[in-house]
Amino acid sequence: MKGVGYTNVSGKETVWDVSDYVFPSQGDPSFVVMTNYIITESQEMGKCPELPGKHSCTSNNDCKGGSYKRTGHGQMTGVCVTTTNTCEVLAWCPVEDDRTIPNPPLLMSAENYTLFIKNSVTFPLFGVTRSNLVEGIDANYVGKCLYDPKKAPLCPIFRLGDIVELSGFSFEKLALEGGAIGIVVDWTCNLDVHVKHCKPEYNFHGLYGNPADTDSTSASIGYNFR
Prior knowledge:
By secondary structure, the protein is mainly beta. It is built from four helices and 13 strands. The chain has two domains: 5-38 and 102-208, atp-gated p2x4 ion channel fold; 44-93, no CATH class.
């Protein structure tokens, strides 16, 4: 991955590079590019009230000390906080509030990040091994090209915005709450002819995270993690 992003949240200017927005470390067959985020400032371990709507209470009897709810942020202390009508919890405080997501996404600049794919295939029965850096794909070409299904179908450098568009998804929608795109490198080769004709084809598939505007049935929209 290559690309630099910039955000200014509450007067805090930040420049993001590959080590900040790509997870996990590069080299795996899958990776995550951060496009949006929520920061809960100055968290520390302590006791604080849950968010409104979580662990609701009217008295201490509603907050069983030592127990917790799967959707909550920590272990209940047995105290009902009257100012919020929620149970007090032992947790990272203040608790994270993810009910409001930054919109538009904070790192829309990720649309212009580029991805360099190295891929290979082996046909052991025929003793053939091919790389997607086929004939004519040298350092000089890679330094200038950008994948296009018609104009540059063999270029191994892909713009993220183009990958999402070719998958049929909207980058802005995907960047808001996350999602997944599948990249398929198809090696369908006729080895009865010269091996130079064995070339890859790239296909992109939107897996999830870009529901229709009328879709209200999704159990879990997007992809996100803490």
